[in-house]
């Protein structure tokens, strides 16, 4: 039958999609991503409000706070300030201790006008005052004091600071923050690792299930083993791919609600590259996992037969998300590391337009080779019962079955 | 006529340093329309032979022929096969996986579904179609497995231990089912180590030992191959049989003796000697059971 692989692939997909463990794992991952994004955007959008104590008569502090509140609103800093007036320093300290005030701003003059300029402005908290609040107040106080002095000196702040701003410029034309690139590398490596190991383990499990029960002998008489393997690889690739597309889409949609939304076009391109690379690369991973399944003789052997693959994928995971510079450039051409490294370089902006294409070609060639080799080993090992099979004996032709082609 | 024929089938396993001949020059025919029993102890080579017939295992030497020509992958696709181990997909419902297996053999899903339900109904499993296979008892799993083999009117049936684990009623139901296929003119080859069962069911018998065919034929042919034994019952003491030339006394007990007579002359000598001593109440051949023949040929 020519379309047997479709029947096999359909079964793999349906059985997998209905598998409770798989669904729970996916739901947990989605919940984690959603939770992370939700938390980030909540933190971003939240307006923090502070009650700041000012001692009666300390008009400088009160004025500073008022203009700080205005500044915060004007510059969209999401900080709200309200002034709590207290009688004296002791009352201010008490307010801090019983938490009716978050901080206490003192101009250090106890109501007297600042004369010598050495008066100590202090922002006190029961513990260390909030840094956002401190930054805001510090800026406002500095401006206020400078404005006073400028007036005293017969000039203006603007005149004093004119021409002192430093503009920044990035010559590679890439708007993406290096920290984002690092984070993206981490996320892609994680998606790759999760997708490859999760779906790989499932394909190995499905192979050993058929081998252990000798069901594969029934199937092999009906369908060429090549078609059985193709169906399994395609089925699990579809699952792995849809899983990654789903997670990537949730991630991208999530990002659009956060401050990172400006990066979205660059991120989307990277994600698309990743999906393409992953799709090709996963076919090889799936084929190798199918061999790992066929080398086992019982489900218990899987841990042993899949461990070299696990090591490889783990190494890709660890190395790719931390790599940069020359190492990253090299890795972006070496499968399977290129699955993660090349998309990260695209995001980074340092990959020329042809680089992902060349890397993809290398990956396609490597995948092709891996699939051919796996197909032989799979056929060779599948009918060998009684103990674990090694790659060497699996590839030794005469021990296998005649039903392959 | 589509006989399933095995010629000089040999399989060498190159495990370790010494190659091991698991099957060594096995030849026999499972004729169409007949139940052929494949008998032998553990390690006799039954499973290996069956796996080679199905093409699951590569053949070292020899050939498998079907309908007078070398068997093709196309033929084998239409063979019903029941492998040594049982299980199917433990966590998939019975109906679903049988339909899946039928579809792999090229049967359209609706047709497969109808046929599977029919078979399940006949085997008393109609109510379990939606249950996972692992929830079924071993006997019922066995029934599901046989359905997997007989779906789609196979051209031949090759069944490894189809009766193991079945209760007597299930054995009869299974035997009826197999006979239905022999009536269609299909060769049915099945292995078993339950000799009484094989003796009762089979038209043909192949006894395997150490990878070789030790004996084959109809049960009657096999029985007559050895020396026939006779029971002799006299009015007096039967001890004299020990002295008759050409006669081997297997067992003497008072007036009765079990003897092996090597030729007709010896039989005449034995009878006339008996008549000289008095009346002969019984002189009859004793048909050996298959179990005895089996012990004889495998010893």
Keywords:
heterodimer, A: 405 residues, mainly alpha, D-Maltodextrin-Binding Protein, domain 2, 4-stranded mixed β-sheet, 4 strands, elongated, B: 299 residues, alpha/beta, Rossmann fold, Alpha-Beta Plaits, 6-stranded mixed β-sheet, 4-stranded antiparallel β-sheet, 10 helices
Write structural notes for this entry.
- The complex is a heterodimer of chains A (405) and B (299).
- Chain A has two domains: 48-147, 3-Layer(aba) Sandwich (D-Maltodextrin-Binding Protein, domain 2), CATH 3.40.190; 175-399, no CATH class.
- Helices cover 67% and strands 6% of the residues of chain A.
- Chain A has 15 helices and four strands.
- Chain A has helices at residues 4-17, 20-45, 59-74, 89-97, 131-152, 157-161, 178-212, 215-222, 225-256, 264-295, 302-322, 325-331, 338-348, 355-382, 391-395, and strands at 48-55, 79-86, 103-106, 122-124.
- In chain A, helix 3 links the parallel strand 1 and strand 2 (79-86).
- In chain A, helix 2 (20-45) packs parallel to helix 9.
- Chain B is α/β, with parallel strands linked by helices and 299 residues long.
- Chain B is built from ten helices and 14 strands.
- Chain B has helices spanning 46-54, 73-77, 94-104, 109-122, 138-150, 168-183, 195-201, 219-225, 264-277, 290-298, and strands at residues 4-13, 20-30, 35-39, 61-66, 69-70, 79-82, 156-159, 188-192, 204-209, 212-217, 229-234, 247-253, 256-261, 280-286.
- In chain B, strands 6-7-8-3-9-10 form a six-stranded mixed beta sheet, with helices on both faces.
- In chain B, helix 6 (168-183) links the parallel strand 7 (156-159) and strand 8.
- The model of chain B has no long low-confidence stretch (mean pLDDT 87).
- Chains A and B meet through helix 1, helix 7 and helix 8 of A and helix 2, strand 6 and helix 3 of B.
